[in-house]
Please model this.
Amino acid sequence: MQNIENLINEIIDSCETIIKNKNYFTPNIKIINVIFNEFKEIKEFYEFNKKILLLSKPVWKLTSIRVIIDSADYNYDSKLFDNVRKFKRYTDTLDEKLIEYRYK
Model:
């Protein structure tokens, strides 16, 4: 779980850095805001419940994944997008008792 916690924090930090940096141009700012908000919620839920909050199972576990697939410009922010995909892969390996789904 430590790897997942670290990755959540890294994703949030990356989003904050991009959002706050007015000198950095990205066409993905709306997507980054979606990722930022979703992962803040995941972090808060985890800190309180010790479970990872996901959207639904089995296909769309994260809103962020759907938004990246549908709208992201991969010429920008690819490390952040790779980390979101990595997080999804980690959650694929978790025991179900460590996961809570918003929609079942």
